[in-house]
Amino acid sequence: MISKFEGHEPVIARSSFIHPNADVIGQVTIGSSCWIGPGARLRGDYGRITIGDNTSVEDNCVIHARPDEETNIGSWVTIGHGAIIHNATIQNWAVVGMGSIVSDWAYIGEWAVIAEGAVVRQHQEVPGGAIVVGVPARTLAKCVDDAYKTEWTRFKSIYVDLARRYRAECDRTREGLEEYHGCR
């Protein structure tokens, strides 16, 4: 459900897809060609959420921000199923693994990888290209290489295409119905 809250209405690019079972509330801005999966909750009720272009927020993710602060997620970011992002900054091309937590004021650099189930602590900085694992998250010796970037660029493009395909399906479904609540 896409909901206005206290005069703030989400701003969502037309080319993005928001699943009907996702909640996008209040001060949320979503760029073009994003895919927001079922069960995702983006609550811009007393803080702001900004998401760049071509980003996927997969099923059952929770994104929130502290009062009068912001969660900022860049472009071409992948946020895996069930991840929690709270009042953090995530730069372009990053990958946040399934079930991981990125806590208050954390900073995730470009092409950084947060492994599945990892917990990035408050104020923790993950440098660009670093891979972090564990609870609390710690940096592995290796960094993201060109082969990884090529592979993940392909994976990320799948979700951009998925957003397009879901939008097309919504448009086809609307043509035959007077009122259709399945897509925004």
Fold and architecture overview:
There is one protein chain. By secondary structure, the protein is of the alpha/beta class. The protein has a single domain (2-175), classed as UDP N-Acetylglucosamine Acyltransferase, domain 1 (3 Solenoid), CATH 2.160.10.10. 16% of the residues lie in helices and 35% in strands. It contains one helix and 20 strands. It has one helix at residues 146-175; strands spanning 2-3, 11-12, 17-18, 23-30, 35-36, 41-51, 56-57, 62-64, 70-73, 78-79, 84-86, 89-90, 95-96, 101-102, 107-108, 113-114, 119-120, 125-126, 130-133, 138-143. The strands form two sheets. Strands 1, 2, 4, 6, 8, 9, 11, 12, 14, 15, 17 and 18 form a twelve-stranded parallel sheet that branches. Strands 3-5-7-10-13-16-19-20 form an eight-stranded mixed sheet. A hairpin with a 4-residue loop joins strand 19 and strand 20 (138-143). 37% of the residues are buried.
| CA-atom Rg in angstroms | 16 Å
Q: Tell me, rounded to a whole number, the average pLDDT.
A: 91
User: What general form does the structure show?
Assistant: globular
Structural class: alpha/beta
Largest sheet: 12 strands, parallel
Name of the CATH architecture: 3 Solenoid
Number of helices: 1
Q: Which percent range describes the beta-strand content?
A: 35-45%
Report the count of strand segments: 20
- Which superfamily, in CATH terms, is the homologous superfamily? Hexapeptide repeat proteins
User: How far apart, in Å, are the first and last alpha carbons?
Assistant: 8 Å
How are helices and strands ordered from N to C?
A: EEEEEEEEEEEEEEEEEEEEH
- Helix coverage percent: 10-25%
